[in-house]
């Protein structure tokens, strides 16, 4: 049966599969500011696609049953798998999943998968909370109004199974197991996963130090720059640079970044090296000042010989004149005494 519009008929003939996003989500799944959380909406739509049943039909095309698009009791998918699919960063995906979990739209579990040849830690499984998802789809219900109606998330479960059977998603158009099954790469050991978690915690510490020590308001741009410097140098150095800026009363990011650039040029890798470099620079500046005072150039000119000779002759003449004046003074004193004696004799006579 055809409509009056050819384009509508053509679109109706298309077999469109994939994610469906209800319009109410852009009003119900929002930040506290009222702006839609597009990352969380995209991730929830993707997860719901995997949980929509696949219909099993007979040779006549009649529906005879349904089956899941994945094996196991929950969908297994990593942060990186979501990021690769939609072009988000891994950090954006984690924040989106956290948002859905915190607002009771999603259950998240981290499991340890044990096989005969390998142990996989922190494998992430997700599952939508169907009742709450139904509420944000069918009525004007904001996520802040939802309450928990399921068990707590981030449960850790140890499972002994066949990795290929438990971690595979055998469906039409599903991604290969190697790309999207493991929350972390299978080659990563538990120590490497723990190290990654510690690095993430350290980066969050640098961001927290910025926020709590008067460096001003932090937007996503500055937060990404701080994260970048934490990866380029280290979180300890970023915090050390901010401490140095705070001590100088210069609590703004451009000053902190100038310090970090200097340390990067000097190939400083830890806070001890940074402090040692600071001490050396202070000593160097003091040494330069002292050296400058001692070796300050004094302009001197070599006098000609004739000037030296004339000066010596003048000095000799001056010396003679001084001796003559002394003798003259003595004679004048003796003459004055003589005159006094003569005047006294005349007066007595």
Overview of the molecule:
- With 349 residues, the chain is of the alpha+beta class.
- It has 14 helices and 6 strands.
- Mean pLDDT is 76; it is low at 152-156 and 162-189.
Biggest pleated-sheet summary: 4 strands, mixed
Shape: rod-shaped
Q: Mean pLDDT score, rounded?
A: 76
Question: Nearest-angstrom radius of gyration?
Answer: 45 Å
End-to-end span in angstroms?
Answer: 174 Å
Number of helices: 14
Task: Give the SSE map.
Blueprint: H1 6-13, H2 25-28, H3 38-51, E1 54-57, E2 63-67, E3 75-76, H4 79-86, H5 90-102, E4 106-114, E5 119-128, H6 130-138, E6 155-160, H7 163-166, H8 177-180, H9 190-212, H10 220-232, H11 235-247, H12 253-265, H13 271-294, H14 305-348
Parallel strand pairs: 4-6
Antiparallel strand pairs: 1-2, 3-5, 4-5
Helix pairs in contact: 3-5, 4-5, 9-10, 9-11, 10-11, 11-12
